[in-house]
Design a protein that fits this description.
Elements lengths: L9 E5 L2 E14 H5 L4 H7 L7 E13 L2 E5 L9 H6 L9 H7 L9 E3 L12 E4 L2 E4 L5 E5 H8 L15 H6 L2 E4 L2 E5 L2 E5 L8 E6 L5 E4 L22 H17 L3 E3 L8 E8 L2 E5 L5
Parallel strand pairs: 4-5, 5-8, 8-9, 13-14
Antiparallel strand pairs: 1-2, 2-3, 3-4, 6-7, 10-11, 11-12, 12-13, 14-15, 15-16
Length: 293
């Protein structure tokens, strides 16, 4: 069952960093699309589907307190979508939002100094902007928004295959407001927080690595490993534009995360978003339990 509302905002420390899980609520996507070539008889043991073959997913975002900085990684679905869209994806238009979750965590919107976007698909950047006085403006008024240059270029000119994933109102007002920090391959918006490209889901998607010092390391997996069920190398989404690049990225990142005992955060896991990765046999990996995972 999904975790209770009392655990949907929860903090833990990673050395010098304080990490707080926040969420924009849950939604559903087709299970076959989420697991690509993996047969349903296998994936449904990990992620049970509803009568429309959809699996439950979360929009987990992460707040990171690093010194005087407060960093928000990704901003959920938002509520700019049509009623039909919300119905298809079972998004409750009246349910708690990311903004509510941030308030529950004890922060105000103006407290956030940096917003880091793993990429610009609709379920990762929906609260970048908000309507005020009839105009779309940045939701977090004191924040710099960090975007991969290549992802912005693609979002402005997507292919027919992924055009539905992009909504320009989620990023163009940021440029109008002059609050965007573009980077090419990697960036460090705050101490211990590094944004690094991990291509596959698309060409410029990023993971976010965390370094709290004293060998306390972590990673926000974004859509490279969207749920803990996606840890095994072949478990790759059908949504990925470059699945073989996803495989290469997983082979680059997963062994290191296992070897160095990183704390992992799985953005779309509706049940237990925190886990470390362990090697079970030569080049075979799985999610390992952590306290309050």
């Amino acid at each position: 069952m999904p975790d209770s509302s009392t655990t949907r905002v929860a903090s833990r420390t990673l050395g010098s960093l304080e990490l707080t899980r926040v969420t924009d609520g849950q939604f559903r996507l087709d299970g076959g699309a989420m697991f690509g070539v993996v047969p349903k008889v296998l994936w449904q043991k990990q992620q049970p589907a509803d009568d429309k073959n959809r699996i439950l997913m979360d929009t987990n975002s992460l707040l990171i307190k690093s010194g005087n900085d407060l960093v928000l990684i990704d901003t959920g679905i938002g509520r700019k979508h049509s009623d039909k869209f919300l119905e298809i994806h079972t998004v409750d238009p009246a349910g708690p939002t990311l903004l509510d979750s941030i308030a529950t965590a004890g922060y105000e919107l103006q407290d956030i100094s940096h917003v880091v976007l793993s990429h610009l698909h609709f379920d990762h950047c929906g609260w970048n902007t908000i309507e005020r006085n009839g105009k779309m403006v940045p939701t977090f008024p004191n924040a710099r928004y960090w975007l991969a240059r290549g992802e912005v270029e693609h979002a402005r000119n997507p292919s027919e295959r992924d055009a539905a994933s992009y909504l320009e109102v989620n990023w163009e007002p940021l440029f109008d407001a002059g609050v965007v920090e573009l980077f090419d391959r990697n960036a460090e918006p705050a101490a211990g927080v590094e944004v690094v490209k991990a291509p596959g889901h698309n060409a410029d998607m990023c993971v976010i690595t965390l370094d709290g010092g004293d060998d306390k390391r972590g990673v926000f997996w974004a859509d490279l490993i969207p749920t803990r069920a996606h840890v095994p190398y072949p478990w790759i989404m059908g949504y990925d534009l470059f699945p073989l690049a996803t495989l290469d990225s997983k082979k680059a990142w997963i062994p290191r995360a296992a070897r160095e005992n990183w704390l992992g955060f799985f953005q779309h896991d509706a049940y237990r978003p925190w886990a470390r990765i362990e090697e079970t046999a030569a080049d075979r990996y799985r999610a390992a339990e952590v306290e309050n995972g």
